[in-house]
Amino acid sequence: MRELSEHILDLVYNCIEGGARSVRVAVIEDSRADRLSIRVSDDGRGMDEAAARRALDPFYTTRTTRRVGLGLPLFAAAARRCGGDVEVCSRPGEGTTVSGWMRHSHIDRQPLGNVPETIVAAILSAPDIAFEYHHEVDGRCFTFNSSLLKEAAGDLPPSHPAVAQWLRAHLAEGIGGLGRLQAIGH
Predict the structure, then answer these.
(1) Domain architecture of the chain: domains with CATH
(2) What confidence tens digit (pLDDT) does each residue in 25-80 have?
(3) Residue 173 DSSP SS3
(4) What are phi and psi of 106, to 5 degrees?
């Protein structure tokens, strides 16, 4: 994965596969702390303590279609390369939260990528899931809730071209309005 938005999408897909009815994504960029944090949480099946500990092991997966699970270990490696880490907190029947953080200015930090397109892909892949996205840059915030999309779309499905176009524009404007912290090479 070359961009952090790809990690976010992978984490969201884990939530969907975990039976989530709601998913929350938060990206926080803080120049004073030189920190970029990403948190993805859901209300899905969750995991027991042992499974949550093993979730960062690339040779552990709950999927039956393959024997490795690289998404979380790759996200953890990306964070650790940049002076950060990843934490998985989960409870059976209550859901899971994955929190990652890293030095924002680190030369090896992956670019954030196309977050609006990532959020659109997540929403269109599971339109029945309540989805919330929060992005903060040095205290300036943008929050999007999929209930806003349902309200704006009326009877049209999220996959309708006009609705998807509105969603892309709304997200791009909201996230773009925050400004971006710049790091060397990004």
Answers:
(1) 4-176 (3.30.565.10)
(2) 999 999 999 999 999 999 999 999 888 888 887 766 655 554 445 789 999 999 99
(3) helix
(4) -60, 135
